[in-house]
Specification:
264 residues, 5-stranded parallel β-sheet, alpha/beta, globular, 8 helices, 3-stranded antiparallel β-sheet
Length: 264
């Protein structure tokens, strides 16, 4: 399980690939209405890391998405969304490195265009090569404890199991598997995909996840900026609840006030 770390002021922080972070929310940059909405949602989320789909950015264009992101304020996490083979993902990230974008990368190899579920076999193959080449790899994968263990053994900096299919907003479908992954992991576990609202983010944190990555849940909300703030607060509340330790679940009622010693 991810180690709990604190700074000198007692603030809850966490470590990811040698970076000390305060925000446990990572946000995407797709599907927003325009540059202004993108900037406003990023700011409202309180995120320190933002992810960009490299294959959906015209790197030759003078005004592109990368120019909307304040690189002094946010750590850029380029991702390989839209890649369907290990070779495509590796090629895309090598290009990102050549352009000086980043070495911290989100590896995403899709296995099916309808469900957008990850191809674990191709993900494992790409992760091995990228780690060997010195990339800091954060792989998107299914909520399979065995796959997550193998990705950790390959040297990935974190594992990013899905909560539900990308863009579905269904929330955490299998909390038991996520709990198993967290229990066995010595690297951060970051829920990626499927979160729909702030309560979903809170549940992920209550389970003990290190963080949550999301995009559609914010971008397709009726009021995206307000939802970004709600997600920020949901992450904070869920993390505090995890650290506080919830009461035991019981089958029957248990009075808040003891019945012994009642005055007749």
């Amino acid at each position: 399980m991810e180690a709990k770390t604190h700074d000198d002021h007692g603030e809850d922080t966490w470590e990811l690939a040698g970076r000390t972070l305060r925000s446990r929310l990572i946000v995407g940059t797709g599907k927003y209405a325009d540059e202004a909405e993108t900037r406003a949602c990023l700011a409202a989320s309180g995120a320190e890391i933002v992810t960009v789909a490299l294959r959906r950015v015209d790197l030759k264009a003078k005004d592109n998405l990368l120019g909307w992101i304040d690189r002094d304020r946010y750590t850029l996490l380029p991702n390989t969304a839209g890649c369907y083979t290990a070779d495509d993902a590796i090629r895309t990230l090598r290009l990102a490195r050549e352009l000086g974008i980043a070495d911290l990368v989100k590896l995403e190899v899709i296995g099916d265009p309808k469900t957008l579920l990850p191809d674990n076999e191709q993900t494992l193959a790409a992760a091995k090569i990228l780690v060997d080449e010195g990339f800091t790899v954060l792989p998107y994968c299914t909520d399979d404890p065995i796959v997550c263990r193998k990705l950790q053994e390959l040297g990935c900096a974190a594992v990013m199991p899905l909560a539900a299919p990308i863009g579905s907003g269904l929330g955490i479908r299998n909390p038991h598997n996520l709990a198993l992954i967290i229990e066995q992991s010595t690297i951060p576990v970051i829920v990626d995909a499927g979160v729909g609202t702030a309560s979903d983010a809170a549940v992920a944190m209550e389970l003990g996840c290190a963080g949550v990555l999301m995009n559609t849940a914010i971008a397709q909300a009726t009021r995206p900026v307000q939802m970004a703030d709600a997600m920020r607060l949901g992450i904070i509340a869920g993390r505090k609840a995890f650290l506080a330790g919830r009461m035991p679940r019981r089958m029957h009622a248990h009075a808040s006030s003891p019945t012994i010693g009642l005055i007749e």
